[in-house]
Amino acid sequence: MQFPTLTSPHTERPNQVDQTMLMVVLALIPGALAMIWYFGWGILINLVLAAIAALLSEAMAQKLRGRPAFGTLRDLSALVTAMLFALALPPLLPWWLTVLGAAFAILVVKEMYGGIGYNPFNPAMAGYVLLLISYPVPMTTWLAPSVIAEHSLSFGQTLTAIFTRALPAGLSWDALTSATPLDSMRTQLDMNYTVTEIRESPLWGAFGGRGWEWAGNWFLLGGLFLLWRRVITWHIPAAVLGGLLAMATVFFLVDPDTHPFPLFHIFSGGAILCAFFIATDPVTASTTQKGQLIYGALIGIFIYIIRSWGGYPEAVAFAVLLMNMAAPTIDHYTQPRVFGHGRLSDD
Amino acid sequence: MLNIAATDASARKIHPLPGGLHLPDNKHQSSVRPIMQAALPKRLIIPLRQHAGNPAEPLVKAGDPVLKGQKIAQGEGLISAPLHAPSSGVVSAIQSLPAPHPSGLSEPCVVIETDGEERWAELPAPMDYRQANPAAILERVRAAGVVGLGGAAFPASVKLSPRPGDGLHTLIINGAECEPYITCDDLLMRERAAKVLAGIDIIRTLLQVEKTIIGIEDNKIEAIAAMRTARDLAGYEAMEIVVIPTRYPSGGEKQLIYILTGEEIPSGGIPAQIGMVCHNVGTAAAVADAVLEGKPLISRLITITGEGVAEPRNLEALMGSPVADLIAQAGGYTPKANKLILGGPMMGYTLFSDEIPIAKATNCILAASTAEAPDPGPALACIRCGRCAEACPMSLLPQQLYWHSRAKALGKACDYNLFDCIECGCCSHVCPSHIPLVQYFRFAKSEHRREEAEKRKAELAKRRHDARQERLERLEREKKEAMRKKQEAMKAKKTAAGGDAGDAKQAAIAAAAKRAAAKKAERATQGEAPKNTQGLSAAQQRQIDEAEARRAQARKTAHSEDRARPAAATESPPQD
């Protein structure tokens, strides 16, 4: 009898890229739902727009490169990029900015470097930074969370606002929008208010901004799910949050009046999303365990530095991109000791 | 005195492996049935290379009758092993046939048509190894063709003869059997623990080690119990039986030694460098057979398993039994049989045909279904997830090795310690992109070896070329020098003929002429036959002189041609 020949190992492989990506998509859903709950339909519309733009861009790039279009669409990596990108966007961002950012992320940041596995920068964060630098005003126009908002827009009104910038009669942009907790904390600290005074505003919840902190909790849940399913390891999330907490704690202890308490930094803005979903993007992160700790901790530290003394209230994207650049170097210097090396016996 | 249970359970600290995998072990399929003696095949195909090192040299020829246990091939050199007829019959051919080797290539094999009579050759007498000379025991083991049965098939006698200065102190016995599906060591320990322990006792007596540690994975509860009982019965208190966690690849030599002792074999080294020797339980049993019963290694336990066979089990099979025969005795193929794997799923290799015989190192035939060993889909791009590095028991960075191997940047791959890779397959197994990482590493290793060999060859060729070049230049120099001298001498002669010769020279010439004349006279008086150039007439002498002059002229012309073609001229040895 004749049999086919193949090389070892001859096993059913437990891991698959598309399944890994699917886990990430699933893990993002609770946080995404919370965001939609607190900030309205705009979040959902952003997600859909970004997903369509990203998947189309990916398919187009595959076609241009002469590869089967559905080959890499199936691995869901473009969908993950789109979701992470969309969840960072303000709810009423003009549609074309969402599309532009997502297409840039996929076409320029990912595919022009060779597609999945080859991009040095996190596509979602690079897309976000492109928009933030080029269109700072719409990118920082956030809505107040539903728990404190006086007005809320229906799905149709949101769609109109996103596609035509027209608001329902009697509503002005000023009445709808509100600064993010990070932004307001920063602005008011600059105006010499103390943290205690600032937190008297109804914007604030137990840890961070109202709404924001709860979205953070749901992302945390998704992150723990990824840890449980071993899609990610604890190293990067722990290091990111640890680095951020350490910085925040030190400065809080030095002067609690001008430095918000440490948990504020964790539960405001995108710190949790970053720690579990963005910094853990395997392609652009450090790959050695020791390297991941350094990589994560430095992201946490950069988040604090840029938030506190940089030009933007939120710093996740910048911190991640900065450390993306450093990842290969970190990897080079944190190679594990190979078994049987460096512990030679005396003889 | 410590009690035995305490020595086992508490004394030894287990050092967890870096990396490794917890795999579904799939051992119960074959371990539920007892060992069965395989029926005698009609035809045995004995590959001459069944061991690490040089192939054996056949001692029989086609048509020779052989007896069971008769030596049919002898080991060539130190690292080799003799082969014995596994059964009686007639040698029908010595020819190249597909051998159990990853390449699937053919190798010279002795083919024996068995006669079914199982007539034994005269075996050497049993030995009392406690009294016998160690050299005699070693010779017995060597002559019995015992090789490592754990997989490498390294001649056992080599690892049993400690070199002075090795300072061996610990014998590690490998009963881990970490590969999924394989249960032959498990069954051996369950059913033949006393023999295994006797073999271990012989080995430790030979090696004169202080400590003996037997490592068994904790999924072999019956084997552990059987070994402990047999040890207590035999009174081998000093043998530690250590239960280690089931984790692939804890049965790798380096891994097992680390788990049991916390010591690492230096990169590229052998256990003897840290005072240890590692033998497999199967090898120990074979040593016991050779020493205590005089039996050569002609059969072994082999696991026939997988969804592709009806009754997975362990067989005591003769070396050289064709795989198809053994499958038939395990209930034959099921319709699910899709691949034939020799060895386990992690490190085994596929056979293209079941006509291939088993050899000394064959521990398992896995007839796998599509579900057990699916065809890998196309490899996707590496997403740098680092699972491979997490799984690597050698703490390598398979991902970096992959980039460099794929780019054929072999130097870089070596910088990332390519040659420390034990090819266990953990990285390939966990890769979400299904990249055949181990295959890349095997390729890079062989490519690097080839390049090194070529480099050595080129280096040698260059040295030879340089030496030749230098020799040619030297010859040229010497020739020129000689010519210069000749010309000078001629010039000197000319000036001498011009009447300006020194008196001393003239006197010397005169003296020489006198000596020559005296010699001639002496010869003449001794009755030597006169030469035909003696006593010539003046006319004859003139003719000879003219001929000489022409010859000289011709020689001169030839010489100048030589100089015009130095390469051609200098190929011949120096003429002056």
Short account of what is shown:
Chain A is mainly alpha-helical and 347 residues long.
Would you mind describing this structure in some detail?
- The complex is a heterodimer of chains A (about 350) and B (about 575).
- The mean pLDDT of chain A is about 90.
- A two-stranded antiparallel sheet of chain A has the order 1-2.
- Chain A has 17 helices and two strands.
- With about 350 residues, chain A is mainly α.
- In chain A, α1 (about 15-40) packs parallel to α4, α4 (about 75-85) packs parallel to α6 and α13 packs antiparallel against α15 (about 270-280).
- Chain A folds into two domains: about 15-180, no CATH class; about 180-330, no CATH class.
- Chain B has about 575 residues and is of the alpha/beta class.
- Among the domains of chain B are: about 5-40 and about 125-365, Rossmann fold (3-Layer(aba) Sandwich), CATH 3.40.50.11540; about 385-450, no CATH class.
- Chain B has 18 helices and 17 strands.
- Chain B has helices spanning about 5-10, 30, 135-145, 155-160, 185-190, 195-205, 220-235, 255-260, 280-295, 325-330, 385-390, 400-405, 410-415, 425-430, 435-500, 505-525, 540-565, 565-570; strands at about 35, 45, 55-60, 65, 70-75, 85, 90-100, 105-115, 170-175, 210-215, 240-245, 275-280, 300-305, 315-320, 340, 350, 365-370.
- In chain B, the strands form four sheets. Chain B has a six-stranded mixed β-sheet, sandwiched between helices.
- In chain B, β7 and β8 form a beta hairpin.
- In chain B, α5 (about 185-190) packs parallel to α7 (about 220-235).
- The termini of chain B are far apart.
- Chains A and B meet through α1 of A and β15, β16, α11, α14 and α15 of B.
Question: In the CATH hierarchy, what is the superfamily of the domain at 4-38 and 126-367 in chain B?
Answer: NADH-ubiquinone oxidoreductase 51kDa subunit
Could you state the oligomeric state of the chains shown? heterodimer
Rounded average pLDDT of chain A: 88
The CATH topology of the domain at 4-38 and 126-367 in chain B turns out to be Rossmann fold
Radius of gyration of chain B: 37 Å
CATH architecture of the domain at 4-38 and 126-367 in chain B: 3-Layer(aba) Sandwich
> Biggest sheet of chain A, in brief?
2 strands, antiparallel
Overall average pLDDT of chain B: 87
Number of E-type strands of chain B: 17
Q: Would you identify the regions of chain B where 5 or more consecutive residues have pLDDT less than 50?
A: 1-10, 564-576
Low-confidence stretches of chain A: none
- Quick one: which chains have the greatest interface? A-B, 45 and 74 residues
The run of helices and strands of chain A is: HHHHHHHEHHEHHHHHHHH
